[in-house]
Amino acid sequence: MRLTAAVFAFMGVAFLTNAAFAASNPEAVEFTSGDVTLKGLLFRPEGNGPFPAVVGLHGCGGLTDHAGTMGSRYRDWGQRLAKAGFAVLFPDSYGSRGLGSQCTVHNRTVRPEHERVADANAARRWLQGQTWVKADHVALVGWSTGGVSALWAVRPHKPVKDDGPDFRSAVAFYPGCRRLDATAWSARVPTLILAGGSDDWSPAAVCEHMVAEARGRSAHAAIVVYPGAYQDFDHPNRALQTRSGYAFSADGSGSVHIGTNQGARADALKRVPQWLAR
User: Fold this and answer.
1) What does R_g of the chain's alpha carbons equal in angstroms?
2) For position 249, what pLDDT does the model report?
3) How far apart are CA 168 and CA 150, in angstroms?
4) Neighbours of 208 (CB within 10 A)
5) What is the Cα 93 distance to its own chain's centre?
6) Averaged pLDDT for residues 65-72
7) What pLDDT was estimated at residue 65?
8) Rounded Cα distance, 249 and 77, in Å
9) Which of 14, 80, 203, 216 counts the most CB atoms within 10 A of its CB?
10) Does residue 169 contact residue 222 with C-beta atoms inside 8 Å?
């Protein structure tokens, strides 16, 4: 009897260990977006669900590096949101199409307002087809160009029959808002923008104007601007640095600053899960 109890105790520890491992390490999945087979990385919470879920859209650097290692910013968010009870799916828009980083490319074939919006919706539909996901609670989060795509994805549109429930809400980290502002942007779901006050890649002031202009004809839209922060302020451990040769920058030089801002990161880590839980 003692031996049996010990065996069951060991099995229980093993189960918890495996569940914790699954929550902190992504699973590779595949699904289709039009005629493209998209690869994605999925973080799942412990338990059987059903869970609220999040589609995460990477920035211009891609989801993984040349060795196939997931970016630490996305891994950090995937792990944190999974521990908070969300399933998180990151579609790899570039790697799935045989592309590397697009940060230095002016004319991108995978456009933020077209292909990447289609990828976001394909990821949403895949999640909604899983028994362990709450189909009516799938949110959208994007970083940089992925944030731009998130903002395009939640603009008002004619509902598509049999497309499944809409995104529940959206969060866009430091998006470029110039083109969206020019189109009189508004959102059909609650949308939060988090921007750096010193961002010299995608100036926050343009997004502030866009959100202000959308009042009265949009679902709830809000923006938080962190003084002194640059892009990547939510990165877990990126020293402030200057990068050059980028296709876009505020002053047209192609030179931008990026790096972690501990105050902004701490606020985002608290604010984003609260927004997604609404």
Assistant:
1) 19
2) 87
3) 12
4) 16
5) 12
6) 89
7) 86
8) 26
9) 203
10) no
pLDDT tens readout for residues 121-157 = 999 999 999 999 999 999 999 999 999 999 999 999 8
Tokens 């990821």 appear where? Answer: 123
Report d(CA 35, CA 257) in Å as an integer.
Answer: 37
- Tokens 């570039």 sit at which residue? 94
Please give the full DSSP string across the chain, using - where no structure is assigned: -HHHHHHHHHHHHHHHHHHHHHHHSPEEEEEEETTEEEEEEEE--SSS--EEEEEEE--TT-SB-TT-PBPHHHHHHHHHHHHTT-EEEEE-TTGGGT----TT-SS-SS-TTTHHHHHHHHHHHHHHTSTTEEEEEEEEEEETHHHHHHHHHTS--PPPTT--SPPS-EEEES---HHHHHTT---SS-EEEEEETT-SSS-HHHHHHHHHHHTTSSS-EEEEEETT--BTTT-SS---EEE---S--TTSSS-EEE---HHHHHHHHHHHHHHHT-
Instruction: Give the Cβ contact number of residue 273 at 10 Å.
Output: 18
Domain ranges of the chain: 26-276
Give DSSP secondary structure letters for 213-260: HHTTSSS-EEEEEETT--BTTT-SS---EEE---S--TTSSS-EEE--
Cα–Cα distances (Å) from 98 to 57, 90, 94, 233, in that order, read 17, 16, 6, 28
Overall size of the chain counted in residues: 278
CATH-assigned architecture of domain 26-276: 3-Layer(aba) Sandwich (3.40)
